Amino acid sequence: MVVSIQFQAKPSLQHTNSLQKDQRAFLLLQLSRLESESAAAAAIGDLVQAARAILKALDCERRLSTTGPQVLQLIKPRS
Q1: Whether 28 contacts 40, CB under 8 Å
Q2: How many CA atoms lie within 13 A of 42 on its CB side?
Q3: Which sign does the torsion angle of CA 39, 40, 41, 43 carry?
Q4: Do the beta carbons of residue 20 and residue 67 sit within 8 Å?
Q5: Alpha-carbon distance values, 24 to 44, 46, 55, 63, 65 (Å)
Q6: How far apart are the C-alpha atoms of 6 and 15, rounded to whole Å?
Q7: Which stretch of DSSP H or E encloses residue 11?
Q8: pLDDT in tens, the chain (79 residues)
Q9: Interhelix angle 47-65/13-43, nearest 10 degrees
Q10: Any long-range contacts for 22-29 (C-beta under 8 Å, 24+ apart)?
Q11: What is the CB neighbour count within 10 angstroms for residue 34?
C-alpha cells in the first residue's frame, strides 16, 4: 500500500505583499474614477448617479483600509 500526501504551499510573504500592493493600487485607481464620476454626475444634476458613485467610493475606501498588514495580528498578547 502506497500513501501519497500532498501539502499545499503557503504563498510566500513577498508574493502576498505584491498582491496587496496590486489590490491597493487597483482600489486607489477605482476610488479616483468614482470620485470623478460622482462629481461629473452632480455637475449635470444627476443626483441619483452621483449618490451611487459616492456609495461605491465609500466601499472602496472601506476595502482600502483593510489592505496591508493588520496591526492586531502583529501584536502578541501578554500571558
Answers
A1: no
A2: 11
A3: positive
A4: yes
A5: 31, 29, 18, 9, 9
A6: 21
A7: none
A8: 555 666 555 555 565 567 778 888 999 999 999 999 999 999 999 999 999 999 999 999 999 888 766 566 566 667 6
A9: 160
A10: 23/67, 24/64, 24/67, 24/68, 27/60, 27/63, 27/64, 27/67, 28/64
A11: 20
C-alpha cell at 24: 491597493
Cell of 11: 504563498
Lookup result for grid cell 510573504: 13
pTM of the model: 0.64
Q: What are the cell numbers at 43?
A: 455637475
- Which of helix, strand or coil describes residue 73? helix
